[in-house]
Design brief:
flat
């Protein structure tokens, strides 16, 4: 699935099952909720926190997909072409950070 396909698929899902997009501000709040769920899982899986009781851990891929879904909704409803935005963003990072990380002694193995 390309990024353009993802945006179209999410839009079809919203039109078919979601009735309409939530407002941009509601989707921002939903995004923060989803990022919080991902952060909780990461802290317990890769950090020092532990899971409570015998509660089974959530699926990391599913939590990341929840974040991506809401980000895609926000992009769709605000007219952002994610594929073009990512291409521009990666170029910006390349121009800015071409040698920055390579020259960072903290990142030397």
């Amino acid at each position: 699935m390309t990024v353009k396909d993802l945006q179209a698929t999410v839009d079809r899902w919203i039109q078919t099952y979601g009735v309409r997009y939530f407002s941009e501000m509601t989707n921002l709040a939903v995004l923060m909720e989803e990022v919080g769920e991902l952060a909780r899982l990461m802290a317990r899986t890769y950090g020092e926190q532990s899971f409570k009781g015998a509660r089974p851990p959530a699926d990391l891929g599913d939590e990341i997909a929840d974040v991506l879904f809401v980000l895609t909704c926000i992009a769709n409803q605000t007219g952002v072409d994610l594929e073009s935005a990512m291409i521009r963003n990666l170029q910006k990072k390349t121009d800015r950070d071409r040698d920055r990380h390579r020259d960072n002694p903290k990142l030397k193995a």
